[in-house]
Write a structure and sequence with these properties.
CATH superfamily of the largest domain in chain A: HUPs
Number of domains of chain A: 2
Number of domains of chain B: 2
Radius of gyration of chain A: 22 Å
Bound molecules: flavin-adenine dinucleotide, adenosine monophosphate
Strand order of the largest sheet of chain A: 7-11-6-1-4-5-12
Number of helices of chain A: 6
CATH class of the largest domain in chain A: Alpha Beta
Number of strands of chain A: 14
CATH architecture of the largest domain in chain A: 3-Layer(aba) Sandwich
Shape of chain A: globular
Distance between the termini of chain A: 55 Å
CATH superfamily of the largest domain in chain B: HUPs
Order of helices and strands of chain A: EEEHEHEHEHEEEEEHEEEH
Oligomer: heterodimer
CATH architecture of the largest domain in chain B: 3-Layer(aba) Sandwich
Largest interface: A-B, 82 and 93 residues
Radius of gyration of chain B: 21 Å
Shape of chain B: elongated
Strand content of chain A: 25-35%
Largest sheet of chain A: 7 strands, parallel
Structural class of chain A: alpha/beta
Strand order of the largest sheet of chain B: 7-11-6-1-4-5-12
Structural class of chain B: alpha/beta
Helix content of chain B: 25-40%
Chain lengths: 264, 327
C-alpha cells in the first residue's frame, strides 16, 4: 500500500502572533515551527497501515527550506522518503495554488491513499486536502477519527463525527482522508529513527521541475487577497464577583446573568 | 454579469437546520446593501414543504433539488448538483454555513468552480460592491480581512451562532422552484453505510446556545456530575478542556479549543479551566464568558465577562440552586 502524507509546517500553538508592519503578514522572526498537529495523525496512520500492508510512505511538504526539518521528523517517525516543493514563486499562494502544486507532484506517483490534516492550525481553513482530492479526481473522506481498511487493501470504512452523530463512510481506493484528533496517538521519533532519517531520500522540487508555470502561483494569482490582518477584537474588561461566601457569589452571578447579560 | 446572493441551506433527516436560517439572514443583509435578490438552494428528499420557511427569513426564491440520493449529504452528489445550479444562477456571492457539512461542501465546491473561498467567517460586509469576509486565523490570535480577485462567485462559509437571525415573517413567501439537474450514479464514489447516533440527546457544542465546560479542576470523571446537572437545568451542552479529555474523563467530541471544537455560544461557563491559549482559541467568540476558578491569576479571567474566584465544587451547586429559585 503506497501512502502519501501532505505535511504543512506551522507556528507552534504557543506562539504569540505579531502582525507585521504592512499588516498583510505576520512577523516570522521568533516563531518555533512545527509539523501541523493534524498532519501528525496522518503520518501515524500511514505508518500503521504500512506496518500491516507493506508498501511505502512518502511525505510531501510545500514551503521554504525550513520545512525540511518537519519532513525529517516524519522520516524519523518511520516514513520512507520526503519531497519538498520549494520555489520562491509559491510565496503567498492560496489553497488552490498549493493544491495545484501538490497535485502536479503526486500525479505521476502510484498511490493508494493520501492523508492530509483536517485543517492547518495557521490559516484554520481545511481546504487544501479537499481541493487536492478534487484536482486528482479522487473521493475525499473528511475529518476522520477511525479507519478500517479491508483485508484486500482495496476499500476502507471511515468514521466521521458530525453534529450529534457519526457517519460510517465506505469508499474504494485510491482516496484522500483528512485526519482529525482521535484517529490515533502519534508516536515519537526514536533516537535510532532520527539517525536513520538522515540517510533517507529527501528530494527538492521547483515549479519548473513539476512542469508548472510560476505566473499561475503566488500572491498575484491568488483568488483570495488579504486586505489586512488585525489583532482580535478586544473584550471589555470583565467583572470579578464579590461576596463573602461561595453562595453569595453564586447568587450575585445568577442575578447578573439574568438581569445584566440577559442570557439566563 | 454575476448577480445576487445564493445561500445554500442545510437539512438533516428532512429538518432544516438552524444554520440555514443564519445563512439566509446574512445573505439578505448583503443582498440588501447590493440592491439584489437572495436565492436559497436546498438539496434533499421530500424537503420542499419545510423549505418554505427559508422565505420567512429573507429568501426571495427557494430552489429545491429533490432526489433520494440527496437525502444524506455526500460531497460527490452534492457538488455535482450544486455545480450545475450555481452556474445556472451565476450569483455574485455564494454563502454556506460553516457546519461540518458546510465546511466540507464549500471546500470541494470551490475547488470544482475554481474560486477562492473564505472558511468559517465571523463577519461580512460589502465594500465598493464587493464582498469582504473577515475570519479568525491562528486560532483567533489574529483576524484576516479578505477580498476576492477575479473570482466569481465570491464564496464563504459563516461560523454557526455568529450571524444574527432575521425575525421570521410568515407573511413573506418565496417563489418555490423545482431544480432541474442531472446526477449520474457513477460520480458517487463514497457511500454512507451506517449512522451511529449520539445518545446524549444534547445539542452539539458547535451549535449550542449555552455551554458549561470543565477542565482539570473537575478532579475526575465523577466531578462532571455537577456540571451535567447545571447544564440540564439551563439547557446547556457540556464541554471540556483537552486536559480533561486526555485524562479520559470526557470523550474527544467534547473538547473545546484549537485541536477540538470552535464554539460560539451565547453563554460559556468555564469551570476549573485555566485558560491556556489553545483553549481560548476555541471559545473566545462566545458572547458571554463566565469563569469559575480558585486561582485569581488564571488567564481565563482575562477573557471572562464575569469571574468567580472560588472553589467550583461549592459555586456550581450554589449557582444551580439560585437559578432554580429564579425559574
Ligand atoms: C498542540 C496543542 C493543542 C492543544 N489543543 C487544546 C485544545 O484544543 N483545547 C484545550 O483545552 N487545550 C488544548 N491544549 C492544552 C492546553 O495547552 C492546556 O494544557 C489545557 O487547556 C489545560 O487544561 P485545563 O485548563 O483543564 O487544566 P489546567 O491548566 O491544569 O487548569 C486547571 C484549573 O483548574 C483550577 N482549579 C482546580 N481545582 C479547582 C477547584 N476546586 N475550583 C475551582 N478551580 C479549580 C486551577 O486553578 C486551574 O486554573 C493543546 C496543547 C497543545 C500543545
Ligand atoms: N503547504 C503545504 N504543504 C503540504 N501540505 C499542505 C500545505 N498546506 C496545506 N496542506 C495540507 O492540507 C491540510 C489542510 O490545510 P489548510 O487547508 O491550509 O487548513 C494540512 O493539514 C496539510 O495536510
Amino acid at each position: 500500500m503506497n501512502i502519501i502524507v501532505c505535511l504543512k509546517q506551522v507556528p507552534d500553538t504557543e506562539t504569540q502572533i505579531k502582525i507585521s508592519q504592512d499588516k498583510k503578514s505576520i512577523e516570522e522572526s521568533d516563531i518555533k515551527w512545527v509539523m501541523n498537529p493534524y498532519d501528525e495523525f496522518g503520518v501515524e496512520e500511514a505508518l500503521r497501515l504500512k506496518e500491516k500492508f507493506g508498501g511505502e510512505v512518502t511525505i510531501i511538504g510545500l514551503g521554504p527550506k525550513r520545512v525540511t526539518e518537519s519532513i525529517r521528523t516524519a522520516l524519523a517517525m518511520g516514513a520512507d522518503k520526503g519531497i519538498l516543493i520549494n520555489d520562491p514563486a509559491l510565496e503567498g499562494s492560496d489553497a488552490l495554488g498549493v493544491a495545484k502544486a501538490l497535485a502536479a507532484t503526486i500525479k505521476g506517483m502510484g498511490f493508494d491513499l493520501i492523508f492530509t490534516g483536517q485543517r492547518a492550525v495557521d490559516d484554520d481553513a481545511g481546504i487544501v486536502g479537499i481541493t487536492l482530492a478534487e484536482f486528482l479526481g479522487i473521493p475525499h473522506l473528511p475529518v476522520i477519527v477511525k479507519i478500517e481498511v479491508a483485508e484486500d487493501g482495496k476499500s476502507l470504512k471511515a468514521h466521521r463525527p458530525v453534529e450529534g452523530q457519526t457517519l460510517i463512510i465506505e469508499t474504494g481506493l485510491p482516496a484522500l482522508i483528512t485526519a482529525q484528533k482521535g484517529l490515533n496517538e502519534p508516536r515519537y521519533a526514536s533516537l535510532p529513527g532520527i539517525m536513520k532519517a538522515k540517510k533517507k531520500p529527501l528530494e527538492e522540487k521547483t515549479l519548473a521541475d513539476l512542469g508548472l508555470n510560476p505566473s499561475e502561483f503566488g500572491k498575484g494569482a491568488s483568488k483570495l487577497k488579504v486586505i489586512e490582518l488585525t489583532p482580535p477584537p478586544q473584550r471589555a474588561a470583565g467583572k470579578i464577583i464579590d461576596g463573602e461566601s461561595p453562595e453569595q457569589k453564586a447568587a450575585q452571578l445568577a442575578k447578573l446573568l439574568h438581569e445584566e447579560a440577559k442570557v439566563l | 454579469m454575476a448577480q445576487g446572493v445564493i445561500a445554500i441551506a442545510e437539512q438533516r433527516d428532512g429538518e432544516i437546520r438552524k444554520i440555514s436560517y443564519e445563512v439566509v439572514s446574512e445573505a439578505r443583509r448583503l443582498a440588501d446593501s447590493l440592491g439584489q435578490g437572495v436565492t436559497a438552494i436546498i438539496l434533499g428528499a421530500g424537503v420542499k414543504e419545510k423549505a418554505v420557511t427559508l422565505g420567512h427569513y429573507g429568501a426571495d426564491k427557494v430552489v429545491v433539488a429533490d432526489d433520494p440520493r440527496l437525502q444524506t449529504y455526500t460531497p460527490d452528489a452534492y457538488v455535482t448538483v450544486l455545480e450545475q445550479l450555481v452556474k445556472e444562477n451565476d450569483p455574485a456571492i455564494l454563502l454556506l454555513g460553516a457546519s461540518t457539512q458546510g465546511k466540507d461542501l464549500a471546500a470541494r465546491l470551490a475547488a470544482r468552480l475554481g474560486v477562492g473561498m473564505a472558511q468559517d467567517c465571523t463577519q461580512f460586509s460589502i465594500e465598493n460592491g464587493n464582498l469582504v469576509s473577515i475570519r479568525p486565523i491562528y486560532a483567533g490570535k489574529a483576524y484576516a480581512k479578505l477580498t476576492y480577485q477575479d473570482s466569481y462567485p465570491q464564496m464563504a462559509t459563516a461560523r454557526p451562532n455568529v450571524m444574527p437571525l432575521n425575525k421570521p415573517d410568515t407573511g413573506k413567501s418565496a417563489q418555490m422552484v423545482d431544480a432541474a439537474f442531472t446526477l449520474d450514479d457513477s460520480v458517487m464514489k463514497t457511500k454512507i453505510v451506517d449512522i451511529i447516533r449520539d445518545e446524549s440527546g444534547k445539542v452539539d457544542l458547535t451549535e449550542a446556545d449555552k455551554i458549561v465546560s470543565g477542565g482539570r479542576g473537575m478532579k475526575d470523571a465523577e466531578g462532571y456530575k455537577i456540571l451535567e446537572e447545571l447544564a440540564d437545568l439551563i439547557g446547556a451542552s457540556v464541554g471540556a478542556s483537552r486536559s480533561a479529555v486526555d485524562a479520559g474523563w470526557r470523550p474527544h467530541k467534547d473538547q473545546v479549543g484549537q485541536t477540538g471544537k470552535v464554539v460560539s455560544p451565547n453563554l460559556y461557563i468555564a469551570c476549573g479551566i485555566s485558560g491556556a491559549i489553545q483553549h481560548l482559541a476555541g471559545m473566545s467568540t462566545s458572547k458571554v464568558i463566565v469563569a469559575i476558578n480558585k486561582d485569581p491569576d488564571a488567564p481565563i479571567f482575562q477573557k471572562a465577562d464575569y469571574g468567580v474566584v472560588d472553589d467550583l465544587f461549592k459555586v456550581v451547586p450554589a449557582l444551580k440552586e439560585e437559578l432554580k429559585k429564579m425559574a
